[in-house]
Design goal:
mainly alpha; two-stranded antiparallel sheet; 7 helices; about 10% strand
């Protein structure tokens, strides 16, 4: 009676091992009403740029959701970003220099400490704030899927 059980266990182990040999990307998340699945099977015909496009898409999803789940008042952080630089048309070199000075200032550190007392929390907020302000200044800090799509379209045109 024990032999079939042992064979069954061996079969399960073999089937798991076979699955691990498949190459692919799988991202799945569920929290409340939010549900997302992004996956891709990878074989010898899969282009590296297609893998990059999927990974960038996952990164964009994570980036948006991470801010929702952090325990900080993001509206207050937006207000601090407004104090540093609020969009007003064409960005000048002086605007960039002034914003960078403000980002590093003790005054901004004090404002961040009003949101959280934790040293690590302040550092997290500073990273988010840096990105907010840099993007307002027209300095991209991430590759987005639209940019990758345009790149891929031009690459196909140049090859064809």
């Amino acid at each position: 009676m024990r032999i079939p059980i042992i064979i069954f266990i061996i079969w399960e182990v073999i089937s798991i091992t076979v699955k691990r040999e498949d190459e692919g990307i799988q991202f799945r998340a569920r929290k409340g009403n939010w549900f997302v699945v992004k996956k891709m099977e990878i074989d010898e015909n899969t282009e590296d740029i297609d893998i990059a496009r999927l990974l960038i898409s996952i990164d964009e999803t994570l980036d948006r959701k991470i801010l929702e789940y952090l325990p900080f008042d993001m509206k207050k952080l937006e207000e601090i970003a407004d104090e540093i630089y609020k969009k007003r048309g064409r960005v000048k070199e002086e605007d960039i220099l002034e914003a960078i000075k403000k980002l590093k200032s003790p005054r901004i550190t004090r404002k961040l400490k009003e949101i959280t007392e934790s040293k690590e929390g302040v550092e997290i907020l500073r990273v988010i704030l840096n990105r907010m302000v840099l993007e307002r200044l027209g300095i991209k800090t991430r590759i987005d899927t639209k940019l990758i799509e345009r790149f891929m379209e031009k690459e196909v045109l140049n090859k064809g």
